[in-house]
Amino acid sequence: MAVEHVRISQDARDKLIKLKRVTGIKNWNVLCRWGLCASLAETSRPPSIRIPRDSTVDMTWKVFGGADADVYWALVRERCRIDGLPTDEKTVGRQFRLHLHRGIGYLAGMRSLASIDTLFETAPERGEPKAPAKPKRRSRSGRKA
Description:
Helices cover 50% and strands 4% of the residues.
C-alpha cells in the first residue's frame, strides 16, 4: 500500500476542528473516513491540486482505516478504475488524498450540519454506487445525440 501515513493540510485540520465541535466526534480518523466516503459518493473526480502536508494531524494508515483499512483502499482503487485512472499504488494514493481533502471540505461546508444527527442524514442510501455520467455523443452535425 502506497499510503503508510495520512497527513492532512492545515486547512483540512481547521475544518476537522470545526466538525469535531459541531458533531461531537472526537477522533480525527472517524471524521476523515466520513470525508473520504462523502467524496467517493460524488460522481465527479476531485480536482488534481497540490495538497500541502503542513498540519500536525498525522496518523498511520491502520489508524485511519481501522479494521476496515483494506476496504477503504479497495474503494479508492475501484473509484480509480471507474474514473479511467491507473490503479497502481501511487495513483491510488494520490486519489485517496484528493478525495479525503475534498470530502473534508464538503462536510465542513455544509450549512445545515448542526449535530451528529445531521451528519448521518448526509449518508448516501445503500445500494449500487453511481457511475460518473458519460458525456453525450455528438452527431455528425455537431449536435448532441
